[in-house]
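ugh ok so i messed up the first submission bc i forgot one of the chains. this is the corrected input, ALL of the components this time, i swear. 944 residues overall. if the numbers dont match what u have on ur side tell me asap before i send this to the collaborators (the ones from the other lab, u know who)
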Amino acid sequence: MPEYTLKIRRYTPETGEAAYWEDFTVDLDGHRSVLDGILQAKDRFDGSIGIRCSCRAAICGSCGVRINGRPGLACHMHLEEAAKRAGDGKIIVEPMGNMPVLKDLIVDMDAVHWKKMRRVTPWLLPDGEPPEREYVVPKESMVDITQTMACIQCGACVSDCLSMEVDPEFIGPAALAKAYRFVGDPRDGQQFERLKDLSEDPHGIYDCTHCFNCIEACPKGVAPMSQIMRLRRISGGDHHIEDRNNGYRHEKAFVKNIEKNGILMEADLLPDSYGGKFHPRAVPELVGSLPVVLTALRRGKVTLKKALIPHKLEGQKSVKKIFDTVHDRDERYELNLYISGTDEEPEHGSERTDSGEDGAAAGTTTAQGSPSSSPPERSPNS
Amino acid sequence: MPAHDVLIIGAGLAGQRAALAAAGEGATVAIMSKVHPVRSHSNAAAGGINAALNPDDSWESHAYDTVKGSDYLGDQDAIEIMCREAPDEVLQLEHWGVTFHRNDEGLLGTRAFGGASAARTYYVADITGQALLHVLYEQLMKFHEQIDRYEEWFVTSLLTDDAGNCTGALARNIRDGSIEVFNAKNTILASGGAGQCFKPTTNALICTGDGIAQAYRIGAPLMDMEMIQYHPTTLAGNGILITEGARGEGAHLYNAKGERFMEKYAPNKLELASRDVVSRAEQTEINEGRGFPDGTVALDITKVPRKRTLEALREIVNIGRDFAGVDITREPIHIKPGCHYIMGGVKTDVDGATPIPGLYAAGEVACVSVHGGNRLGANSLLDTLIFGKRSGVHAAHRARTMAMPNASHSRVDDERASIDAIIRRESGGRRISEIKDELGEMMNDKVAVFRDQAGLTEALDIVRRLKEEATGAAVDDRGTVFNQDVLGAIELGYMLDVAETIVMGALERKESRGAQFRLDFPKRNDEEWLKHINIARNGGDEPSISYSPVTMTQWEPQERTY
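and heres the new structure output, hopefully the right one now
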């Protein structure tokens, strides 16, 4: 059996001492999980190593940790793979971030994750009495929100959310993905109210900075950031909810800016975000933004020339074409794991055999996959 | 001291459903679990939930399939209740927000499942259990004012008064190690099964038979304990489950010679025969040398259109990739029968009441019995919900008729002392993990798909030796915060009690029925053994065996073929 060294972050609250590192060497097949490694260390050497775990199959969401600095489930990472990614060969295992550590690898999810979950009114609020039988809803709508139902509440996305690091009050990726599960559910009667609430909250959907960390972190393909962007598109695009925090207008301004110039024109972006140069709020808001502008200038994020002199991207017409194509569509295409992204490959032999003898495709199950007539593709991330 | 009309131990589907039902009846409710509720093992029920909801289907057909699946050991009155109430329960779940698969008309759609004469399994991709569990937890959060949640509390024992009534439980707060009495007019056990008595198993690490052992220790009888379901499709090394939904969607089983061997064993239903039949067929192929060198046969999911697999079996695509390195949409995956479910458990009536007044049980911890000798796929979610609900309602009604019991505080001191004694044990004994591994591997060797007198007798000796050794197994953790080590020691005790009754039941039943196949008694024997085996302590420490009749309503035992 190959040997692996796990370098585990330990913390024993009763001692009052600081956290420390401890190495354990385990021998297991390389395709066994980091959790198996930790459990072997616990079984053989030290039963006091603390880690929540249960299913061992990436479905219960208990064993969220950081492995070599990246969040994920300990049961979902092979030892071999983890060792390859480890800097000095030692697999580093530490508790998730953004949540207080209770002991060793165990964090306080109630204080952060579940508190935020409760913030989004996480239960269905249908209008009126339920029907006698089931709600009749489009097939694809259920498949669509099944992507967010696939969330196992492991907290990996919360662990590495950059916005939450800066603004601990940010509702965050997991809870906002949960919010989409209701906004996208045709049985829910509070779509507008939910969106307005999440737009108006300064720690709501416009607090996300689009860093993709949560998408990388999620072991279940929930893609929380995509769900947040969908909430924004529905809120702004369909319901025209203009939040007090300028999230909606900023986004609009950004899109308009790119459509026009192909590249960011900062001098327009700021005033447009506040409703245009002549909007009564523009001047005070601009003055308020001055420190940010000055810092950006000092750090070279923008130059005076770039910021003030009109400029366009070379080949801006191609950018415009992308906008035109998107505008011409009747419906937005949204990326969903359960529907798209993995189309039939007709050249592969086994696909054709959707033939009659396949007795098990009983009842109503022979789905043809994609709900929209054309293959869905990545939606415009405005 | 917390006091409630209804205390629910375990927060999987049965527990959460019981909590919602009891709160709906106006009772004060507490729900307690050693893990956060959404970590519960109900998550693992992938394939779906059965209900005769389709107008072309009937509850009688569902009930008959269940009776036949149980090898006629299921109690037919209970099965009738479960199948009759199933359609309304599925609709209730749908109204609460479960994202059930729809057909093209937007109505609830079904998939086929093993042992069923109609496609009556309602599902959410292959995460049905997870979807149900999370939606019920949404409701639990919604009704937070009516339902007190005690998340990450570990029950160490049930409380009884002098008259033998159950009056609540003692529990340890895992977060800080404190012990508290939970006074309750009624206690509902909903803490799941005991798969960890076997290794490997599809069951999660938390499935250590806690509730079964806790009830047994206060004198409640356990029923049908010998009936352990081996699921036909589990991964060889780690026991991870491949859902029956795969075969429901059309996957085939092949031996190493490329033969679709189910043609021999179940010419009509083939891969969709009941689980005991398919598992025995696989094990026979493997034992007779027609398996692969790793002791497996092959499950070929490439028969299912790839797109359909990716939409409806997404989770096992991931499992194949992550835990076996196989792309199941491209190539067969090697599987074997693995310990999955315990049909037996704490004996209850159709309202979940046990013979101990004030104690109820629902879900896998219980034995009503609706599964008898073999549970049909997609009937376990149904069982948890129907009997979870019924026990919640019944317990709430019973609470109206009585005063809050007074628990004795001395028990807290006793309990604290016994936990302290575990923590202070001298090192030197065997490690807890060693004992647990020996138990699991032994059970999987001697108390598995095929059993015989010699193996079972040996198994009983080993369990009893391990019980002895377990009392001296040392723990490393001396702390109070998340001392999982000391909980592991207590769980080991639970598992050994449960394992002992499993082996005793298997030794006692001298016939082959459902999941119990005795090589030395290979035939079903209705004359002598169409009855339940009950095991109880009856006051002392020694278990004793008794029998109870199987309730028959309209289906006479017949020869069982698929």
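quick check: The longest helix of chain B spans residues 484-508. that seems consistent at least. Chain B touches chain A through 90 residues (CB under 8 Å).
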